[in-house]
Fold this protein.
Amino acid sequence: MQVGTVGIATACAVQRLRLSNFRNYDSLALDPAAQVVVLTGANGAGKTNLMEAISFLSPGRGLRRARLRDVLRKEAAADETAGWAVAATVRGPDGPVKLGSSLSRTERGTDKRLARLDGQTVPPSSLSQVIGVQWLTPQMDRLFLEGPSSRRRFLDRLVLGLDPDHGRRVGAYERSLRERAKLLRDGGGDPAWLSALEARMAASGVAVAAARREALARLQRLLSAATGHFPKAGLAIEGRIESWLDDHPAVEVESRFAAMLADSRQHEGAADGPHRSDLTVRHLDKDMPAAQCSTGEQKALLIAVMLANAKAEAERRGAAPILLLDEVAAHLDSERRDALFAEILALGGQAWLSGTDRNLFEPLGGQAQFVTVGRGQANLEG
């Protein structure tokens, strides 16, 4: 069966996937050969689990943000030394690479994620240098109605696709934030050490804020120029540090941020910063905040943003990212489903779609490879 001929030669694509002790899979071997891979099966069959496994080929905690131990197959959970593993051969912009992610135990008995690149152990953050992975899940349908922390995580995933070092900067800022909070709870410690910590925190925080602003500006250009069946989205970020960068150079903002941190010590560090910023999204055609739009419009806005980010990443990396779209077709009318399928094919990257109703994906015809999922197995059709 010949499928997936549109752009697959230069796109990021999973060509070989192996799982061990991952969720409901004892072991799994899957070798897809298409631009679009459609996972079908009953609820609870393991479709999302497969997508989650692929999401662990990128930095972070996967598309469910689960604890590492919770990903382990239940039948293996009684063994404290047991672990799970995801191994894949992925075509990247520079050719095939071997990627892996697994649960490991440290000498202290704590869980740790281990990442591998062509047989070498690497920090998980390094994976973003090799390929891009983006996802939409049903849990994200409430993104515009939840608190700002979910939107910050969503925003930082978008930025990571355009700036692979963004995850490292966010991690450095959050570590400094936690360390400073602990020092202040314990009485503050050495003032000179605290000042040095706040200076590092200001530097990484301003870098995080600047990367967010740059990524949003790039995405907004693509969103404003987009035509088709998805609404035009207006993106902005609300945050003190980001607003300071509108009018002042980064070095001056760093100094102001460090001074604000020093002034807030007596309040146990209750200072503002990138950890409190919020992504705002508007439906431009209706001039309406996304939170006030209908459920279908909110889903369409999310898809519009994801597609724009995939295009921006393809321009930067030279290959479109791998898209994981969990149950996305069920929430769209037929016109928007067809539009989404057309956008995916035009991007040229690999996309994994899931659903219980196989008929929803019939418009993809011979351009997709179908996988039947059930009882801890996934079988390629055809």
